[in-house]
Design brief:
The chain is about 30% helix and about 25% strand. The protein contains nine helices and 13 strands. Strand 4 (about 70-75), helix 4 and strand 5 (about 100-105) form a beta-alpha-beta unit.
Amino acid sequence: MHLLTEEELKVAEKAVKGLFPESVKVYGCLFNMNRGKPHNFDVIADSWPDFRVIICKQKAQRSLDREGDFNIYNIYSKDKESLKKMLSVPSVINWNTFTLLAGVDINHLDAVKELCIFHNVRGETEGIVYLLLLEDASHLKDPECIAECNIVPLTADHAELVNSNWKYGRNAMSYNSVKNYITNFPSWCVLDKSGKPVSWILMYQHGAMGLLYTVPEHRRKGYAKLLISIMAKHLLEQGYPVYCFVDEGNEASYRLFTSMGFRHKPDYHTVWFQINEKL
């Protein structure tokens, strides 16, 4: 196992850029880390510079935000056996505590399940998702409603509103994460006449667009499509990859993003897999 230095993080960013979509989540972490964004990650590789697995893992659990609390691992692996070998290194995972492997290639999931059996711990698939990557930016046309909208970045004062409407939120840890996203990463919202956000989109630490939400009484006005378009254009200008995750079964979101030029690799699905129960 090799812990990457600051200079090696820059080399790793360039190395994984050509391995999309499988590597895009790790790439997003590296992209933000290399530009001084706050983070709680160590980045480890199975070997260096000829790696087959790279993992971004928490430096410390039980920090004051959802990421630290959740003990999230962002994973890129070239093959199943290399991933299994890497996760078998004692210092990589504490098999006695809750761990969320956020983004395991579904084709490599058997290796993780075998290790759970070996360590006699409970492993469970939390969700299977599409990784949708923007391939055709020509679909990012400004909707007709743009002239009527007051569109601005979110502020830290909006964190409670966003957190209270986030399906993974509604607690102090998630509030801290939302505030971190708003403070340190791009975000956009539509304000109503009173100056209150009625629709918004944010970006996670790993660079994916997320937390897209429109309050019920303002839906079907084109706000979601508008904000995706604005965010995507902004990210492209900043050099970010433009991508998101959509749960299997979320037909509405899948149709929305694919109508705007986002695509997924047919034989690639990513899995959120939890080890042990969260206390």
